[in-house]
Amino acid sequence: MNTAFEYLKENKIFHLATVDGQKARVRPFGFVMSRNKKIYFCTNNTKEVYKQMVKNPDVEISAMSADGSTWLRLSGKAVVDNSRETKVQAFSEAPFLLTLYPKGADDETYVTFYLDGAKATLYSFTGAPANLPVL
User: Which of 47, 79, 90, 114 could form a disulfide with 38 if both were Cys (CB 3.0 to 4.6 A apart)?
Assistant: First the structure.
């Protein structure tokens, strides 16, 4: 894997951390896509994670390889992109999302966002941390 995007695609479940007042909040995510030279994710605009990102867009993502030998940290500012074209791409790439959002790209609660200014670092137990291109 040469990019953070490839790492996240291979390691399907990753964790997104947000700030909630003075506390960190972490939850699992599983959707990622590439669009307009940005890395995209999705959520529901009724969830606390969405509200936290709107209030403080500084987020960090962490993923670990299946064998536990490496892990990725990806940070940036969450920027909401509610364009219909972005949503259509997301449902095209991940049809399983229709089980959660049956109206597809027309679902008003479905939100896509990307990381602006994203920085990725790959860590391991055996070597020095390495900066990775995001895409």
Answer: 114
pLDDT digits (tens, 9 = 90+) for 99-123: 999 999 999 999 999 999 999 999 9
Tokens matching residue 97: 């999302």
Instruction: Confirm if 134 and 3 have CB atoms less than 8 A apart.
Output: yes
Domains parsed from the chain with CATH numbers = 4-126 (2.30.110.10)
CA angle 17, 52, 31 (to 5 degrees): 55
Q: What element of type H or E holds 118?
A: strand 110-124
114 closest CA partner among 61, 73, 51, 65: 61
Q: What is the pLDDT of residues 45-65, one digit of tens each?
A: 999 999 999 999 999 999 999
**Which runs of E-coded beta strand occur in 37-109?**
38-44, 58-64, 70-81
Q: Per the confidence metrics, is the pTM higher than 0.90?
A: yes
CA distance 36 to 8: 18
